[in-house]
């Protein structure tokens, strides 16, 4: 059953035009943004329209960020993706005219607001490192995971050992999760580590970087939309009896099929939405091809399917319980704070875990340092700790808690949220 149209408690957020689409893809989400954002085929930042078409090939982050977002409001992406002031200084060169329609999202970036103050301090904290590029530590971890995954997968195909198959699935998801660090950054080959699974780094840049990261836990968050109506993570009184009471029972099956569902969506998007395959669309075939060198093709395919099944379950278990879902974390429908500062909205929709933060390996493989990552998504995870003092200082000034939660609390909270039909009547904030 399709969820009924609900009104956002983020006053001024327009209901997304494509939210009720049958097959929920990144391209479909962008189509809805183009209908809603009043960008008139250009790029909108605030109430001004810019023509970035000629700039795309020169964009330091890669042309894809520009070409994907044509015809949409990129205010939040522009603010969050640029730590330095260079982009802001270059922007007037591309100005076309004022927008005629109001913004479809009310988030603000005032100079005296939380986010702008924090980002200024973060710039100072990062001034002595090349934060536009990944760290050697992150590279070593990601490359180690990639090489180990290939070794384990070929060994699994050769031996048919269930221990090796399970280990292959775990390492494959760790590699994908480490690739997430690079997907947010300028174009690079390590972001293709995500494509070793049936999931697409291009799709991730849309549903994760451009949707989830910028409109976290709102009606515009595609990572919430894509699970409906199987999982209803927003607090709605009209949740069906089965998803409200039995999601915990069928979750393992949904978790295990996530990669396979994304494979179907990827094929559809590549040929019917984007129009043509790219080189990265061949990457998912690397592992099964290597398996065919050490086992008969049918055996290799069956082994690969087992690995994907395990990896999918592991990925979903980690991803859905990483930081965002608990009745005490803001979800659209809950009462929210009056201040519409984008940074504060991020803080209210995320928590960090005490078990993950001490280890850069766990941070890379389990979506750690989640709050700082949401505030500074293009900064390598291994540099984020440099911004912790600035973060704590700004939180103290704005009366925001920096308390760490346990993984167990978030795991339990996610299932409580699936059954939650009572939106908070008092602002659900840190």
TrEMBL record:
Keywords: Membrane, Transmembrane, Transmembrane helix. This is Cytochrome b5-related protein. Gene3D superfamilies: Cytochrome b5-like heme/steroid binding domain. The keyword Transmembrane applies. Residues 46-100 form the Cytochrome b5 heme-binding domain. One of its GO terms (biological process) is lipid metabolic process. The chain crosses the membrane at residues 140-159, 165-183, 246-265, 285-305.
């Amino acid at each position: 059953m399709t969820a009924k149209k609900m009104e956002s408690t983020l006053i001024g957020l327009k209901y997304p035009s494509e939210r009720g689409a049958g097959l929920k893809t990144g391209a479909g989400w962008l189509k809805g943004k183009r209908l809603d954002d009043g960008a008139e085929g250009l790029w909108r930042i605030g109430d001004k329209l810019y023509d970035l078409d000629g700039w795309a090939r020169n964009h330091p982050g890669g042309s894809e960020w520009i070409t994907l977002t044509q015809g949409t409001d990129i205010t939040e992406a522009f603010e969050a993706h640029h730590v330095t002031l260079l982009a802001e200084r270059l922007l007037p060169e591309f100005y076309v005219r004022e927008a005629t329609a109001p913004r479809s999202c009310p988030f603000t970036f005032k100079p005296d607001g939380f986010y702008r103050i924090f980002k200024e301090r973060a710039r100072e904290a990062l001034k002595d490192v090349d934060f536009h590029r990944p760290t050697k530590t992150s590279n070593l971890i990601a490359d180690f995971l990639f090489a180990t995954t290939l070794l384990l997968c070929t060994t699994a195909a050769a031996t048919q050992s269930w221990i090796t198959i399970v280990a292959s699935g775990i390492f494959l998801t760790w590699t994908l999760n480490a690739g997430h660090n690079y997907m947010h950054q300028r174009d690079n080959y390590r972001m293709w580590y995500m494509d070793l699974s049936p999931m697409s780094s291009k799709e991730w840049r849309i549903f994760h970087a451009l949707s989830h990261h910028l409109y976290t836990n709102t009606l515009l968050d595609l990572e919430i939309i894509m699970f409906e109506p199987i999982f209803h993570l927003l607090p709605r009184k009209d949740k069906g009896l089965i998803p409200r009471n039995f999601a915990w029972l069928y979750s393992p099956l949904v978790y295990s099929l996530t990669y396979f569902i994304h494979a179907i969506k990827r094929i559809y998007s590549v040929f019917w939405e984007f129009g043509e395959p790219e080189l990265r669309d061949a990457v998912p075939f690397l592992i099964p091809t290597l398996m065919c060198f050490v086992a008969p093709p049918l055996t290799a395919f069956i082994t690969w399917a087992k690995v994907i099944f395990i990896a999918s379950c592991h990925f979903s278990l980690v991803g859905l319980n990483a930081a965002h879902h608990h009745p005490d974390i803001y979800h659209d429908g809950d009462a929210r704070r009056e201040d519409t500062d984008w940074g504060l909205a991020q803080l209210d929709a995320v928590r960090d875990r005490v078990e993950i933060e001490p280890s850069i390996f766990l941070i890379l493989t389990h979506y750690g340092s989640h709050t700082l990552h949401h505030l500074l998504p293009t900064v390598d995870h291994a540099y984020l700790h440099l911004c912790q003092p600035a973060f704590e200082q700004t939180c103290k000034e704005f009366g925001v808690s920096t308390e760490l939660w346990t993984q167990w609390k978030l795991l339990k909270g996610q299932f409580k949220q699936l059954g939650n039909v009572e939106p908070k009547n008092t602002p659900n904030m840190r």
